[in-house]
Amino acid sequence: xxxxxxxPVVQRSKEGGFFxxxxxxxxxxxxxxxxxxxxxxSAKHGSFYLKNERGNLSRVGLVKDTQAAGKIAKHVFLxxxxxLLKKGSHITKDSPPLAESYLACYLGDEIGDLSxxxxxxxxxxxxxxxxxxxxxxxxxxxxxxxxLFKDTVYSEGENRFFSTLNTAILLLLDxxxxxxxxxxxEYFLEEIIRVxxxxxxxxxxxxxxxxxxxxxxxxxxxxxxxxxxxxEKKEFLLFNTVTGEKKEEISKLKVPVxxxxxxxxxxxxxxxxxxxxxxxxxxxxxxxxxxxFITRNILAAPLIAxxxxxxxxxxxxxxxxxxxxxxxxxxxxxxxxxxxVAIQKTSLLENLxxxxxxxxxxxxxxxxxxxxxxxxxxxxxxxxxxxxSLAILTEELNAxxxxxxxxxxxxxxxxxxxxxxxxxxxxxxxxxxxxxxxINSILNREFFTGTVTRELAESFNGLESFVLKDNxxxxxxxxxxxxxxxxxxxxxxxxxxxxxEADVRILKxxxxxxxxxxxxxxxxxxxxxxxxxxxEIEITRKIQNNxxxxxxxxxxxxxxxxxxxxxxxxxxxxxxxxxxxxxxFSFLVADVSGKSLPAAIFMAMSSSIIRTxxxxxxxxxxxxxxxxxxxxxxxxxxxxxxxxxxxxxxxSTHKIRFASAGHxxxxxxxxxxxxxxxxxxxxxxxxxxxxxxxxxxxDILPGDMLVLYTDGAIExxxxxxxxxxxxxxxxxxxxxxxxxxxxxxxxxxxxxRQFSGNSEQYDDFTVMILKFPEQKPESFVKRFNAVSxxxxxxxxxxxxxxxxxxxxxxxxxxxxxxxxxxxxxxVMHGYKNTNIPNPYFDCMIEMLGDRIVITLVDEGxxxxxxxVPSPSIDANxxxxxKGGFGVFLMEKLMDKVSYEFKESKNYTYMEKKIS
Length: 915
Description:
By secondary structure, the protein is α+β, with helices and mostly antiparallel strands. The protein is built from 22 helices and 34 strands. It folds into 5 domains: about 10-175, Beta-Lactamase (2-Layer Sandwich); about 200-345, GAF domain (Beta-Lactamase, 2-Layer Sandwich); about 380-525, GAF domain (Beta-Lactamase), CATH 3.30.450; about 550-770, PPM-type phosphatase domain (Phosphatase 2c, domain 1, 4-Layer Sandwich), CATH 3.60.40; about 780-915, Heat Shock Protein 90 (2-Layer Sandwich), CATH 3.30.565.10. The strands form 7 sheets. A 6-stranded antiparallel beta sheet has the order 10-9-8-13-12-11, with helices on both faces. A hairpin with a 2-residue loop joins strand 31 and strand 32. The model has no long low-confidence stretch (mean pLDDT about 85). InterPro entries: Bact_Sigma-Reg, GAF, GAF-like_dom_sf, HATPase_C_sf, HATPase_dom, PPM-type-like_dom_sf, PPM-type_phosphatase-like_dom. It comes from Leptospira ilyithenensis.
């Protein structure tokens, strides 16, 4: 390249200007310079257009489109401005589009007369266009080259300077590379700053990652780049962001963790460079197969958030160089950190946004629950509760309509619906056949959502057609520990969008307290109703207890037994008996229509009328019922009536007279076990204003029995729906004829219960049995003054009377002690603080067979057995007599003791077996 004599590169012309010398040696130098310039920016072709001695531009080097390159060079030379033209652009309006991209840089001083030429580069390898960085680098190279050429004008030793010029050009190349690296670093820093700003300013993660990966592709000058993220189970890496021509094919793939370069980086958390991908077995070949892409080299780095790997980024196939370098790793890690920060930041923001939305929703839901709580506290009935609650529900879920569907199974088999439509709540009822889908939801406990289409509407039954419209959701509701079967529905979303899982969760949250509130309110109403019923039952029981005798009438003229058991809480049956002196007695059984409080009041009124008539008149049973019917009919305002069988007994004549007011035929069982039904004619009392009653009369013989009963004693049914019946009742009584009346009745009741299979009692049970003794009793009566001195006289009287008639051990002493205690109570307490003149008590004695009945009668203060305190046995054993001991002693020593207050007199009955 060096000769003995070389001209300066730049010489002065005769006109005083400058031109570029031309020689074989200089031409080689120009080609060397062009090759280095092309290498700097990966240009395909290049030429110098240098000013010759004649002032024209001479081309040195090769370009494909000499015409286009010449025009560009001429334009740049005249304008003294460097130029970058992209592929496809036009030099002038009329010129064809350029087939390649061009860089043209001016050689010379922009101000002054040193104009040397133009450096033109044509086409860039692997890219369509030169970049602004490329233009900046060649401008830097060209300006320094101009300075070197300019110095040759003033050189005195051309040969020596030529050698120096070669060295300077090599230094210029190194300096240009340094400049290029500096520019690249500056570009990289600018990109990192731009990416950071983008990450901080944008909430669109997809857009951020696409721009980051495009930036990575540009900075590292690669054919493609990609970002992969770990799935939730951390089993696969999924392509999230892909740049390059094959991004659609690649985006569908997933890389198993631990396989391929990306999978390995995810495990090791270390970056990797693979510069010979075709021969490296670690490369995941499925990507190339799916995309028909050839991977030459790979640069991969982990995405790390905290201490966890969340993904991997890759740069694929360098463009202007054969290999990735270690320096690339340091830069690439900055991009991976930026991506990780972007993902983490966006994830945090999304989580925060989600949390804010959820918090806002929860606050709204809590407000709704609070409002619901207020509605519960302030609502007094189910409709009021539903009116407020459904309004809260529609507002919370931004819907038009809502409602609650309640399934009532059992006897009713109805669907109760509270439907809110057009701001109003309606209560309605449907038959079970009028709903399928909502009822299935309740029974299967599965919610369902949907949109009412024409096809779906055709499948709806009456209920669904009434309540569901547009978009809807139906949620079954069944509070824990409750028998409530119901469903909430909501429909007509104002946003015209489907109800989602979040809406269902809200509905579940609100539905639970609403259902419980409804259940509680319903239970409260039931409790109030139940308490009202219980109060009514309690009053009814008290009335009945006051109606029914609280003692068993005791007489040696008959053995009386009676039992009355209600089928439900209260009974519709009642009975009564009453003695008139020592020889006259009346007995009755009755059955009142109805079982409620009005029935009890009607029973009390009826029994009071009958009792008053029987005790204050001498009417026959038929006449008594006739008069009773008139009075009862006058007071019967609700259509109630009473059936009744009335019996009067005269022990002196042994005659029984009877009459019936629509009651069952009663039973007369003779001593020889034959029997007869006692029939009477007449309507139930209270049915018509004037009743006509026909009864009858029989003579009772010793050993006979009279059985009075209501229909509950014969109409009880067994599992085969067979009635117990009158015949079987008579047979069972006859079979027990020798037993006491009360024992017979108790056993009969148990037999009937066993017959029914111990199921619920069908009807009220009332039976009264009178057994008449086979011998005539002995009767004695003696009156004593109610003073303490008379009590020893009474004991003496009893001792003389009973001395030879009592054979049972201790019975004599038991009777004397008991009568003594009873008489003492009358004298000491019965007449205490009274102004009754000539106080007395009668001692009536009846003996029949092995039994004795002693009755003490006084006119003192009414004796209430319930008011007598329980005695202290220990205190009395110590000699400390306290209240209640005398009564306690009497009831322990005698077989039977009972008390009655009637017609202003106290009756104390005492019975004892004496032999």
